[in-house]
Design brief:
Layout: E1 2-7, H1 12-22, E2 27-33, H2 36-45, E3 49-54, H3 62-73, E4 80-83, H4 93-125, E5 129-134, H5 147-167, E6 172-179, H6 190-193, H7 196-199, H8 205-214, E7 222-225, H9 230-238, H10 240-248
Helix pairs in contact: 1-8, 3-4, 4-5, 9-10
This protein binds NADP nicotinamide-adenine-dinucleotide phosphate.
NADP nicotinamide-adenine-dinucleotide phosphate binds next to helix 1.
Length: 266
């Protein structure tokens, strides 16, 4: 038997991850997101035991609610924590300012850190166990109008690298997955999917779910999805002037796709 918590499980990559993990014999899942109806529907459709916690992960009490649920429903066991919930609200800094940076940090970074802090004792007690943080290729290379999102993912990557080293002695593996463009509710990538020239660079949530599974207990420390996106990170280090020139040019605007969060007031 193994127990996994998946955040952001109501749609997209999180829902695909829950479906992937549910195929492993003996798995019990805890699905976390805000929309209870979606979580209930998913839990009912999975071939394993699945419970859920409908909560806003940026709320002060969210980490303790998830922990209390694990203690009450799953015997305090936790073999895998998938920190996947996240969002992006596009906007240049001059217009969207600190408020937009703060909103990204609260969800994509602070909420991950706070939930991990609350659940780490359970992960250590259940070791060998794992944490998988869903970062982004945007945490290696930043584009115009995605600076706040990139900042939150750069922060997540740095923190995850340190946590990997710190938790090794406790047998808690820390893995990280860095997706590129993946068509989901929150990140529909409509502009890229509409054109034959760019359609091929958009991948599916199921591909990321497989990578998350591979980065779980005893697994890989880092996976780009699709794998060639690692070249963008390498280019940023080895050819920074070239990358800057490309990402500042007119064609780069096509790479800042719209998100579901765009235009949502804080
Ligand atoms: N799709 C891409 O192109 C892409 C690329 C790189 C990285 N990523 C990362 O992948 C992760 C999953 O994104 P996705 O593409 O699957 O997008 P998605 O379909 O919009 O899923 C986001 C999930 O996060 C949940 N969520 C959002 N705000 C929340 C909050 N305050 N509290 C609790 N749950 C919250 C949403 O559920 P509720 O609305 O029900 O709360 C939803 O389940 C994110 O961290 C994202 O940054 C995505």
């Amino acid at each position: 038997m193994s127990v996994a918590v998946v955040t952001g499980a109501s749609t997209g990559i999180g829902a695909a991850t829950a479906a992937r993990l549910s195929r492993e014999p003996g798995t019990e899942l805890v699905l976390v997101a805000r929309r209870e109806e979606l979580l209930r529907e998913l839990a009912d459709s999975l071939p394993c035991r699945a419970t859920y916690v409908a909560v806003d992960l940026t709320a002060a009490e969210a980490p303790q609610r998830v922990r209390a649920h694990l203690e009450a429903e799953h015997g305090s066991r936790l073999d895998l924590l998938v920190n996947n919930a996240g969002a992006s609200w596009r906007g240049d800094f001059g217009s969207s300012g600190y408020a937009n940076v703060q909103r990204h940090m609260e969800l994509n970074f602070d909420a991950v850190v706070r939930l991990t802090e609350a659940l780490l004792p359970l992960l250590r007690a259940s070791a060998p166990s794992a944490i998988v943080n869903v970062a982004s290729t945007a945490g290696r290379v930043a584009r115009a109008r995605t600076g706040a999102y990139s900042a939150s993912k750069f922060a997540l990557i740095g923190w995850t690298d340190a946590l990997y080293a710190e938790e090794l002695p406790y047998d808690v593996h820390v893995g990280m997955v860095l997706p590129g463009f993946v068509a989901t509710e929150g990140f529909p990538a409509t502009e890229l999917r509409e054109k034959a020239l760019t359609r091929w660079i958009v991948s599916k949530p199921e591909a990321v779910a497989e990578a998350i599974y591979e980065a779980g207990p005893g697994g890989k420390p880092e996976r780009y999805v699709p794998r060639p996106y690692a070249l963008a990170a390498v280019a940023r280090i080895l050819a920074p002037r070239l990358v800057r020139r490309v990402l500042s040019g007119g064609a780069a605007a096509n790479l800042t796709t719209s998100t579901a969060g765009d235009g949502t007031p804080r």
